[in-house]
Amino acid sequence: MTAKIFIDGEHGTTGLQIRERLAGRTDIELLSIPMEERRNASLREELLKTTDIAILCLPDDAAREAVALAAGTGTRFIDASTAHRTHPDWVFGFAELEKGQAARIAAAQFVSNPGCYSTGAIALLAPLVAAGVLPVDYPVTINAVSGYTGGGKQMIAQMENPEADDAITANHFAYALTLAHKHVPEIVTRSGLSRRPIFTPSVGRFAQGMLVNVPLFTDLMSGAPSMAAVHAALAAHYAGQDIVEVVPPAEGTALPRIDAEEMTGTDRMRLYVLGTEGKGQVNLIASLDNLGKGASGAAVQNLNLMLSAR
């Protein structure tokens, strides 16, 4: 039987990309609210209750409302908002996070899609914490730059329309300066850290792409591991799958630079372990498309896993 899929919030940046990725598939039936009926609350409720899987591309409160509207119906959810990313009853939609995570996603009723920045940060941190290489109370700092599409339709318009009254003229800017970015709770929870990291996100004048940077002092890590040992821990964790690539040390250290747009248009992620061996420092970088593995691509990956369990 063809699965019914409803994208609640299909006209936003993430929703539009998900819809484009699903267009033309014959194994699913895409349910949609016509533009002229987009404010029809009863129609939305009916679709939430009758669909097989609802993908929520909504603000947090609206996502919680959508789940409540379909309570007791058996509807399965993929939530792209922040609302449920640390909720114990929701499976975190990062299939490569740990062994068995893909199977948990496949069987789940409730799946929370990770944030874009947190996907990169968790990919770097969680394996090292799990391996006992990175102490849970390590004073982690995270620096990141994203393409401006991560800010949604408003920021896209501000960056692409220089004549607008609220246009953003900066080519690169840091934000969340209060150190209270909405992705921090899921980074702490899903990485296994006990100490809240300092996270400084920024936006560049490019549409899609992302670099997430976690520098570490190896003498503050358990056993003062070498760069090679850090790389080995990440490589062992991600062995046997083809979504997260741990770049070989020789390839990474030979690079003069890493382009924040290198993964644009893909649903994969590259992890780099950089620095100079023996100097007591290592520089970890995750490279991904903020709308690929960082949003819409991850949602479709999770959808495919959930469909596989039907």
Task: Summarize the structure in words.
The protein has 2 domains: 3-115 and 295-308, Rossmann fold (3-Layer(aba) Sandwich), CATH 3.40.50; 116-290, Dihydrodipicolinate Reductase, domain 2. The protein is of the alpha/beta class and 310 residues long. The model has no long low-confidence stretch (mean pLDDT 96). A 7-stranded mixed sheet has the order 8-9-7-10-13-12-11. Strands 2-1-3-4-6-5 form a 6-stranded parallel sheet, with helices on both faces. It has helices spanning 13-22, 41-50, 60-69, 101-107, 116-130, 152-160, 184-191, 227-237, 249-253, 292-308, and strands spanning 3-8, 28-31, 53-56, 76-79, 91-92, 110-112, 141-147, 172-174, 198-204, 210-217, 244-246, 269-274, 281-288. It has 10 helices and 13 strands. β3, α3 (60-69) and β4 (76-79) form a beta-alpha-beta unit. Helix content is 33%, strand content 21%. The longest helix has 17 residues, at 292-308. α5 packs parallel to α7 (184-191).
How are the elements arranged and paired?
Blueprint: E1 3-8, H1 13-22, E2 28-31, H2 41-50, E3 53-56, H3 60-69, E4 76-79, E5 91-92, H4 101-107, E6 110-112, H5 116-130, E7 141-147, H6 152-160, E8 172-174, H7 184-191, E9 198-204, E10 210-217, H8 227-237, E11 244-246, H9 249-253, E12 269-274, E13 281-288, H10 292-308
Parallel strand pairs: 1-2, 1-3, 3-4, 4-6, 5-6, 7-9, 11-12
Antiparallel strand pairs: 7-10, 8-9, 10-13, 12-13
Q: Write out the strand line-up for the largest beta sheet, numbering strands in chain order.
A: 8-9-7-10-13-12-11
Name of the CATH homologous superfamily of the largest domain: Dihydrodipicolinate Reductase, domain 2
% residues in beta strands: 15-25%
Distance between the termini: 9 Å
- The total of beta strands comes to 13
Overall tally of domains:
2
What Rg is obtained from the alpha carbons, in whole angstroms? 20 Å
- Largest sheet features: 7 strands, mixed
User: Spans with pLDDT under 50 lasting ≥5 residues?
Assistant: none
Report the structural category.
alpha/beta
Number of helices: 10
- Mean pLDDT rating: 96
Q: State the name of the first-level CATH class of the largest domain.
A: Alpha Beta
- Principal-axis shape: globular
Helical fraction:
25-40%
CATH fold group of the largest domain: Dihydrodipicolinate Reductase, domain 2
Order of helix and strand elements from N to C terminus: EHEHEHEEHEHEHEHEEHEHEEH
CATH architecture of the largest domain: 2-Layer Sandwich
